[in-house]
C-alpha cells in the first residue's frame, strides 16, 4: 500500500513538472482557438436571448420571469464574448505576456461554468434539471486547455455551490438528491475530459520537442561528418608538408587539362622543376 501511494505521489510530481513545461504552449493554443470558439457561441447566445425576451416562451408569470433572466444572461454573455474577441484580435501578440492573457482561459472557464450553474439553479423553479450545468462542464473540459489542478478547484467549487443552492431551491429531498447526483456526474465528467485533453496536449508537446531535439542533434552530426569528409578529401589530395597537390591530385588535374585541350583544339605545356636541398 505504501509503495502504491509513493508511486502515485511520484507520478503526480512528474506530471506537475511536465505541465509547467508545456503551460506557455497551452496558453498560446487557447488564444489561437478562442476567437473561433467565442465566435461560434455568439449566434447561439443571440438566439437564446431572442427566444427568451422576444419569443414569449413563458406561459405563466413564473415561467416568464425565468425567461427574462435567461434572456438577460444571454445578452450579458454576448457582450462579454464580443469584448473578448475584440481584445484577442487587437492584442494577440502581447496578450500572452500579460496577467490577463495568462488568466483568460481560466476566467472563461469560470464564466461558462457559472453561466450553466446559474441557469440550472434558475430552472429549478420551472423544471428541475441540471442540463445546463452538465453542458457547461463538458464544454469547458472539451475545448479549453487548462491545468488539471486549476480545473479541480473550479469544478469542485462549482459543485459545492450547486449542492448548497439546490438544497435551498428544491422543495423535496428526493429531487435534491437526484440533482446533486447529476451535478456530481457533470463535475466528474468535466474534470475527466479536462485531464484527458491536457495530458494529450502535454504528451504531444513533449514528443514534438523530443523530435525537434533529435533532428537538431542529427543535423549537427551530419554537419560534423561533412566537415570530416572535407578534411579527409583535402588530406587525400594535398601533401602534408607543403600543402601542395600530391601526385594523385596532379594526375586528376592533368587528365582534366588534357581533355580540355583536346576539346578546344589547343596546345598544352608542362613545366618540371627540380628543387635542390628541398628537405
Task: Tell me about this structure.
The chain is 81% helix and 0% strand. With 279 residues, it is an all-alpha fold. Helix 3 runs antiparallel to helix 4 (131-143) and helix 5 (148-169) packs antiparallel against helix 6 (173-237). It is elongated, with a radius of gyration of 36 Å. The mean pLDDT is 83. It has seven helices and no strands.
Helix content: over 70%
Range of strand content: under 5%
For the largest beta-sheet, the strand count, sense and barrel status come to: none
Q: How confident is the prediction overall: mean pLDDT?
A: 83
Shape: elongated
* Parts with pLDDT < 50 across at least 5 consecutive residues: none
What is the fold's blueprint, element by element?
Layout: H1 2-53, H2 61-90, H3 99-123, H4 131-143, H5 148-169, H6 173-237, H7 247-264
Helix pairs in contact: 1-2, 1-6, 2-3, 3-4, 3-5, 4-6, 5-6
Amino acid at each position: 500500500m505504501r509503495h502504491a501511494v509513493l508511486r502515485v505521489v511520484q507520478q503526480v510530481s512528474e506530471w506537475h513538472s511536465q505541465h509547467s513545461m508545456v503551460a506557455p504552449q497551452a496558453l498560446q493554443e487557447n488564444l489561437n482557438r478562442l476567437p473561433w470558439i467565442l465566435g461560434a457561441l455568439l449566434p447561439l447566445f443571440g438566439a437564446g436571448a431572442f427566444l427568451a425576451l422576444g419569443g414569449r416562451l413563458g406561459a405563466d408569470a413564473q415561467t416568464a420571469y425565468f425567461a427574462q433572466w435567461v434572456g438577460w444572461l444571454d445578452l450579458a454573455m454576448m457582450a462579454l464574448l464580443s469584448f473578448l474577441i475584440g481584445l484577442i484580435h487587437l492584442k494577440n501578440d502581447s496578450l500572452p505576456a500579460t496577467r490577463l492573457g495568462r488568466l483568460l482561459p481560466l476566467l472563461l472557464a469560470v464564466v461558462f461554468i457559472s453561466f450553466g450553474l446559474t441557469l440550472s439553479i434558475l430552472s429549478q423553479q420551472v423544471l428541475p434539471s441540471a442540463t445546463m450545468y452538465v453542458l457547461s462542464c463538458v464544454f469547458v473540459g472539451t475545448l479549453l486547455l487548462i491545468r488539471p489542478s486549476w480545473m479541480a478547484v473550479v469544478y469542485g467549487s462549482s459543485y459545492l455551490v450547486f449542492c448548497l443552492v439546490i438544497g435551498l431551491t428544491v422543495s423535496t429531498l428526493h429531487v435534491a438528491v437526484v440533482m446533486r447526483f447529476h451535478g456530481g456526474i457533470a463535475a466528474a465528467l468535466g474534470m475527466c475530459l479536462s485531464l484527458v485533453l491536457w495530458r494529450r496536449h502535454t504528451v504531444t508537446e513533449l514528443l514534438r520537442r523530443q523530435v525537434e531535439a533529435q533532428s537538431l542533434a542529427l543535423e549537427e552530426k551530419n554537419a560534423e561528418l561533412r566537415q570530416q569528409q572535407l578534411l579527409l578529401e583535402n588530406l587525400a589530395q594535398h601533401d602534408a608538408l607543403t600543402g601542395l597537390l600530391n601526385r594523385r591530385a596532379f594526375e586528376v588535374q592533368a587528365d582534366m587539362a588534357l581533355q580540355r585541350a583536346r576539346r578546344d583544339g589547343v596546345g598544352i605545356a608542362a613545366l618540371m622543376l627540380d628543387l635542390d636541398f628541398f628537405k
